[in-house]
Amino acid sequence: MVEKTVRLDIKRQDTLNSEPYWEEFELCWRPGMNVISALMDIAMEPVDRLGKQTMPITYDSNCLEEVCGSCAMRINGQAAMACSSLIDKLKHPIRLEPLSRFPVVRDLAVDRSVLFDNLKQVKAWVPIDGTYDLGAGPHIDPAVQEQAYPLSRCMSCCLCMEVCPQYSEPTRFVGAAIINQVRLFNMHPTGATLKHERLSAMMEDGGIHECSFAGNCVQICPKNIPLTTSISVVNGQVMKQAFGNFFQKTELTSARQKPGKR
Ligand code: FES
Does the CB atom of residue 69 touch ligand 1 within 6 A? Predict the structure, then answer.
């Protein structure tokens, strides 16, 4: 009986600036295989399709159940999570490439630290002192919890940035995942203490005005986060704050101009 096999064509790159090249692999098929288990098989026996010894493929993965967000890559030209991409559901030969909008570390592993820099930029955290026991957190209305939970499912995979036409070096757009986190932390009673600063960051370079509402982000999100709704909500908050700032400034200017008020 002829053994069923799986062919993978993998784009490889040794360093950030070296030339990429393709290698082909042929593996024994097993039921229920996914892209990560295929990469594990190559790691166990790193030989190419012609039997030539090669280096195991470098890639990121951790949870293997679409929770950690680390295994994002391009599979057959589409941005996807490798651990939840079943071999039997993919067109063969399967082409694997690193995400295209992030610097390659090696092979399929990319540097996504820009996401964490952007999270810092918008203060995407709940401020707590940390020097003493703060006791129980604030009570959160169950209706708010229900709205917040889907937003909290972001796993920092960066697929929304990979497919966004606005995410680029010149725009420095922070991306939909970040805007979603702004919405999430602004909803939290303690997180809201930084709401003003977060929205100010959204008005700066790479902020919400860079979004062109293409909607690719919400289509690709593996966790079905309502990203375009988050963008609209945060856009409304930004507008409100911008108007507030404007009227406050106008009031101050006219108060200064009134005779006797200096
Ligand atoms: S390995 Fe964690 S999401 Fe794929």
Answer: yes
